[in-house]
Write a structure and sequence with these properties.
By secondary structure, the chain is α/β, with parallel strands linked by helices. It has 16 helices and 20 strands. The structure holds flavin-adenine dinucleotide. It is an enzyme of class 1 (oxidoreductase).
Length: 590
């Protein structure tokens, strides 16, 4: 076991982690710990854009952006946080421009902007051009730009180090003096365990899309940071709200950016009808994702799907000029050719909703400090990006608001972590703090378990796709809880065939699977208790939004006793009020 000491340790080298590192490395001794080589982080897969009310192309302002974000999130958004994000968006884009990010330009040389779902002029009148972009490779450009700046600033990286635990001085559920002391990491190349002590710890570990089978997310998005914090007794907020992106390649889940519709693409059902005209008469195909995904699933359920099994709908780009497609959507049209053998110039592309984004996560305040209950923070612990829930996305995130979120709150996290470290004392690491991780690794790697990681993961993902996807019912969610219970028992008997210490990816996948099981249970238990429909969470048995009972954030805690939680689960639920400033909830129509 090795020990290291820093002022600030940032877990995750995606957009949020590196944006934080750029702020903190100049002010405090900072290390970034990442299970992936930084430029392999999922931020690099983001396609469509990052929004800010620059008003470069048409009239716009941050207040309209705040309103759209609140309405898009079906009023579960904390409005103070949304306002911070929309205001700071403009500088966030300009910061990236100054760092050298090659945005697409207008003929006059300004940063160009395009349309995206739910972003409107004057509170819903018509779609507005708010998304800044670099073709359909915006995330790739952001990640590369931030990495270059980190290299320039000599940020220290621990690459291919997996953080499997966070060290706290007490139980955040009961100990008001609990502080963050460090993290425990596993080095992939050697199998060695490292304890990294720090005054400030920033979690920036990204999303958890691998809870589902059909997903746009990379294989590595297993929600590690969320699960690590949760296991220690830190609540997870609003986890039942998962975004299903409308346009995954049918049968595969690989993403075709909403930019395709922003540039004029149209969704059609099996008989060629532009069905979104029926569901969202004003902004049609550019309605927010929850509405479009549900409308698509509904077309298929009512027998109006396309293809031999009528199990998908079509994204039609054939009316766009090939030169326009090549200039604005080069990568995603190539995906259609490569993975489905479809030529988007001349044929519509088969698409179906795919699990895309976790609206929930580790609760934080607007300075990114982690909350241990509805009000109190854990000093020294911060979170930003998809792992966090601040909550700017409420129950449904608008497209291009996440690349924005990671830049705005990543920056805030870096500043807050460095400022805290400037005055705080280093906390002692309790004796044997690394032993839980060591024991679990030994149990799996050296034990006699016979269950295979891939088999349990497949069963988990299939149950989640079947029972907790776009449409949910009491019955389907109870079935998911039963399935997860059984899978947890099988997981207790998991084993790996690779017993080596160098690059044992089978072993780390086993640990990641444990995280997925815990998170799936939190998603499902929260969804079962939320007897209403709002944003990404749609209950067929409770199809309306219920502001009297449920205009609240879900806070999920692990129980100390197995089975002592909601409906015999290991999850205890509590609720937290939503921050409302200017916008009273209204019916959500587009
Ligand atoms: C295909 C796709 C397209 C998208 N397009 C857009 C878009 O156009 N616009 C938009 O706004 N949003 C988009 N999104 C969403 C957006 O890209 C993500 O929400 C955002 O990039 C997440 O950034 P992040 O920094 O929080 O996490 P990530 O970029 O996922 O980075 C996570 C980091 O954490 C590290 N990590 C994870 N677990 C551990 C661990 N246990 N130990 C150590 N390190 C760990 C990883 O190595 C990685 O460096 C898209 C998402 C996908 C999947």
């Amino acid at each position: 076991m090795q020990t290291h000491t820093y002022d600030v340790v940032i877990v995750g080298a995606g957009g949020a982690g590196m944006r934080a590192a750029l702020e903190s490395s100049g002010r405090a001794r900072t290390a970034v710990v990442s299970k992936l080589y930084p430029t392999r982080s999922h931020t690099g897969a983001a396609q469509g854009g990052m929004c800010a009310a620059l008003a470069n192309v048409e009239e716009d302002n941050w207040e309209w952006h705040t309103f759209d974000t609140v309405k898009g999130g079906d009023y579960l958004v904390d409005q103070d946080a949304a306002e911070v994000m929309a205001k700071e968006a403009i500088d966030a884009v300009l910061d990236l421009e100054r760092m050298g990010l090659p945005f697409n330009r207008t003929p006059e040389g300004k940063i160009d902007q395009r349309r995206f779902g739910g972003h409107t002029r004057n509170h819903g009148e018509a779609p507005v051009r708010r998304s800044c972009y670099a073709a359909d490779r915006t995330g790739h450009m952001i990640l590369q730009t931030l990495y270059q700046q980190c290299v320039k600033q000599d940020v220290e990286f621990f690459n291919e180090f997996y953080v499997f635990d966070v060290i706290l001085t007490g139980d955040p559920r009961t100990d008001p003096d609990v502080r963050a002391a460090g993290v425990v990491a596993y080095e992939l190349a050697t199998g060695e365990i490292h304890v990294i002590r720090a005054k400030s710890i920033v979690f920036a570990t990204g999303g958890a899309g691998k809870v589902y089978k059909t997903t746009s997310n990379a294989h590595t998005l297993t929600g590690d940071g969320m699960a690590v914090a949760y296991r220690k007794g830190i609540p997870l907020e609003d986890m039942e709200f998962f975004q299903f992106h409308p346009t995954g390649l049918a049968g595969l889940g690989i993403l075709l950016s909403e930019a395709a519709r922003g540039e004029g693409g149209i969704l059609r059902n099996g008989s060629g009808e532009r069905f979104m005209e029926r569901y969202a008469p004003t902004i049609k195909d550019l309605a927010p994702r929850d509405i479009v995904a549900r409308s698509m699933a509904n077309e298929v359920r009512e027998g109006r799907g396309a293809g031999p099994n009528k199990d998908y709908v079509l994204l039609d780009l054939t009316h766009l000029e090939p030169a326009h497609i090549d200039a604005k959507l080069p990568d995603i049209t190539e995906f259609a050719r490569t993975y489905l053998g479809v030529e988007p110039y001349t044929e519509p592309v088969p698409v179906y909703p795919t699990a895309h984004y976790a609206m929930g996560g580790i609760p934080t305040n607007i300075t990114t400090q982690v909350l241990r209950n509805n009000t109190d923070v854990v000093p020294g612990l911060f979170a930003a990006g998809e792992v966090a829930c601040v909550s700017v996305h409420g129950s449904n995130r608008l497209g291009t608001n996440s690349l924005l979120d990671i830049n705005v709150f990543g920056k805030r996290a870096g500043i807050a972590a460095a400022e805290y470290a400037a005055t705080a004392e280093l906390v002692d690491v309790p004796e044997g703090a690394h032993l839980d991780v060591e024991k679990e690794l030994v149990r799996i790697a050296a034990g006699s378990g016979t269950e295979k990681v891939a088999a349990i993961r497949k069963d988990l993902q299939e149950s989640m796709d079947l029972n907790a996807q776009v449409f949910r019912t009491d019955e389907s969610l109870r079935q998911a809880i039963k399935d997860i219970d059984a899978l947890r028992e099988r997981y207790a008997n998991v084993g790996v065939s690779d017993r080596g210490t160098s690059y044992n990816t089978e072993l780390v996948e086993a640990i990641e699977l444990g995280f997925l099981i815990d998170l799936a249970e939190v998603v499902v238990v929260g969804a079962l208790a939320r007897k209403e429909s709002r944003g990404g969470h749609f209950r067929e048995d409770f199809p309306d939004r219920d502001d009297t009972e449920f205009m609240v954030h879900t806070m999920a805690y692990p129980t100390s006793e197995p089975g002592a939680g909601e409906g015999g689960s290991t999850v205890r639920l509590d609720y937290k009020p939503v921050v409302v400033t200017r916008y009273q909830p209204m019916e959500r129509k587009y």
